[in-house]
Write a structure and sequence with these properties.
By secondary structure, the chain is α/β, with parallel strands linked by helices. The protein has helices spanning 25-31, 67-79, 89-93, 95-99, 114-122, 176-180, 189-199, 215-225, 244-252, 267-272, 280-292, 312-322, 340-347, 373-387, 390-399, 408-428; strands at residues 2-7, 38-43, 57-61, 83-87, 104-107, 129-131, 152-153, 156-157, 160-161, 164-165, 185-186, 203-206, 231-236, 255-263, 296-303, 329-332. It folds into 2 domains: 2-136, Cobalamin-binding domain (Rossmann fold); 150-433, tm_1862 like domain (pyruvate-formate lyase- activating enzyme, Alpha-Beta Horseshoe). The protein binds iron/sulfur cluster (SF4).
Length: 437
């Protein structure tokens, strides 16, 4: 039996140069696939699918933005007689839509049910829907690191690892707790360490939504990571700045950069995201504490909230300069299907399109409340263009040395992210949006 496992890219075009986010779902599914199966695993960020080859079965993991590409891949494969199973957050939320393009859908985490899907396929008993319960991470297999799916940057492998699933919160714009459950589950620390050792790299990305979501577990994990002398980046909440001891431990464990969703610099906007630090000053102080600990602070912002007015873009720039931020991510609010935000905007008649390819964080797919659609697009591009101007990038890279003891990860991350940010910005900014009127 020939099996293909795929994570599609978001568009038919190859992605631009820049940091690729390492995936782990395929490594784990591969580990759960019986060894007698002829397995091909493709992460489309890096590799191409060979459509000339015949596969008996394909597993395609989709999120909303790459779902249309995933459906096109399925159509091509099915023309050659391949049967297709969809999984991932988008298929879990909209199984009926995925079934129009595939033969079966796995709803929820695939680990618990994947061996059954393969067995049913072999017995010609493939069902349309497979519903899985949140997986007991104590039984998680070690990811197949021998598949060499990791992005390579300047000769350095950049593997991902994870430790935690589930989220106790239920933010309006997010479907994590609906898909992965509200109970937070952790991998045993010893399992994480074994996986990291198997991955044979000194640079990693921690794929957890919040590396300090459970401070007790985080302490144990950080203490076990410290002797490995690896460097890694991850995601956290800005609240980590309140616990200086945990912050120091995080650095000693190898953390050199944190991606943190500030989301909005306006107090009203921050309140919508239930942020513990809401004011401009509180956020500035927290950024300084994290940077002083030797950790690169990569904030992420969302624009188009009901509270946002056109001055939000200038205010955000002001914050970025005052906080001496090296790299940042800017998103237009995106109401993913399955979230409470999606249902609210749909009910209010504010959704402009349900073309999922446009649900990519840089296209306005709904009518904002206190701006026009054009004002939101213009302001968003104005901010990106200013932040990623050549002179600003140079200043930021030179300033990297001001962060205490900047490591290899920080240097790579800052350089690649700024180059990629500038490239994407230049490609996407319409000429008439050079200035913000
Ligand atoms: S945004 Fe973060 S905190 Fe909110 S539900 Fe999603 S994962 Fe949890």
């Amino acid at each position: 039996m020939k099996l293909l496992l795929v994570t599609p890219r978001s568009t038919d075009k190859k992605p631009p140069i820049g940091l690729k986010i390492p995936q782990l779902a395929l490594h784990i599914l591969a580990a759960l696939t019986p060894s007698d199966i002829d397995l091909t695993v493709i992460d489309e960020q890096m590799d191409e699918i060979d459509f000339e080859k015949h596969y008996d079965l394909a597993g395609i993991s989709i999120m909303t933005a790459n779902a249309p590409r995933g459906y096109r891949i399925a159509q091509k494969l099915k023309e050659k007689g391949t049967r297709v199973v969809f999984g991932g957050i988008h298929a879990s939320v909209l199984p009926d839509e995925a079934l129009k393009f595939g033969d079966a859908v796995v709803i929820g985490e695939a680990e618990g049910i994947w061996p059954k899907v393969i067995e049913d396929f072999k017995n010609r008993e493939l069902k349309k829907i497979y519903r899985s319960e949140p997986f007991d991470l104590n039984h998680s297999p070690l990811p197949r690191r021998d598949l060499k799916l990791e992005p390579v940057i300047l000769g350095y492998k950049w593997p991902g690892f994870f430790t935690t699933r589930g989220c106790p919160f239920s933010c309006e714009f997010c479907s994590v707790s609906d898909v992965f459950g509200r109970k937070v589950r952790h991998l045993p620390v010893a399992h994480v360490i074994r996986d990291i050792e198997n991955a044979d790299s000194k640079i990693f990305l921690n794929l957890d939504d919040n590396v300090v979501g459970n401070p007790g577990y985080a302490r144990k994990l950080f203490e076990a990571l410290a002797p490995l002398k690896i460097e890694w980046g991850g995601q956290s909440t800005i609240g980590i700045a309140k616990d200086e001891e945990l912050l120091k431990l995080c650095y000693r464990a190898g953390c050199r950069g944190l991606f943190i969703g500030i989301e909005s610099i306006s107090t009203q906007g921050a309140a919508r995201f239930q942020k513990t630090l809401k004011t401009f000053r509180e956020n500035l102080d927290a950024v300084k504490k994290i940077q002083d600990a030797g950790i690169l602070f990569h904030p992420s912002f969302v624009f188009g909230l009901d509270e946002d007015t056109v001055d939000i873009f200038e205010k955000t720039l002001d914050f970025l300069y005052k906080a001496r931020i090296t790299t940042a991510t800017f998103n237009i609010l995106t109401p993913y299907p399955g979230t409470r935000l999606y249902h609210r905007l749909k009910k209010e008649g504010r959704l402009i399109t349900e073309d999922w390819e446009k649900y990519n964080h840089s296209t306005v797919v709904f009518r904002p409340k206190k701006m026009t659609v054009e004002e939101l697009i213009k302001g968003y591009h104005f901010l990106k263009k200013e932040f990623y101007s050549l002179s600003n990038i140079c200043k930021r890279i030179i300033r990297l040395s001001e962060i205490s003891n900047p490591g290899l990860v920080q240097f790579f991350y800052a350089v690649f992210n700024n180059i990629a940010g500038r490239q994407i910005t230049l490609e996407s900014v319409p000429n008439n949006y050079k200035t913000f009127a």
